[in-house]
């Protein structure tokens, strides 16, 4: 039996969601402060992976595209909240650079996948 190739975007978004959860717990303990801001990044950051996971069982190509487009929007929102955390001195330079790099990589992959799907669906 041939082994199926790994779903790269699913793996990356699962790992990213795990990082977001750990960052949330760490920052909640480290600093008293804006729990609302932390909840925002927790919601959007974990939603990226949830929507990618949902796309696996999409009912149609259009449904697949919708799920991944939502994941892309959530990834972009997460980028916004990560920038706010960094600007508010919740994240060090090193912490920010590490997680924003992962976030931007996910955004780039989702842009490519959704762009390819849109082209394919127009044919």
Overview of the molecule:
The protein is mainly alpha-helical. 82% of the residues lie in helices and 0% in strands. The protein is built from four helices and no strands. α1 (8-30) runs antiparallel to α2 (35-55), α2 packs antiparallel against α3 (61-87) and α3 packs antiparallel against α4. The longest helix is centred in the C-terminal third of the chain and has 30 residues, at 93-122.
Low-pLDDT sequence parts: none
Secondary structural class:
mainly alpha
Summarize model confidence as the mean pLDDT.
Answer: 93
Radius of gyration: 16 Å
Helicity range: over 70%
Q: Rough shape? A: elongated
Number of strands: 0
Q: What assembly state would you assign to the polypeptide chains in this entry? A: single chain
For the terminal residues, how far apart are their CA atoms? 34 Å
Sheet of most strands = none
Q: Order of SSEs, N→C?
A: HHHH
β content, as a range?
Answer: under 5%
How many alpha or pi helices? 4
Please describe the topology of this protein:
Layout lengths: L7 H23 L4 H21 L5 H27 L5 H30 L1
Helix pairs in contact: 1-2, 1-4, 2-3, 3-4
Characteristics:
single chain; 123 residues; mainly alpha; 4 helices; 82% helix
Give a brief description.
The chain has 123 residues and is mainly alpha-helical. Helix content is 82%, strand content 0%.
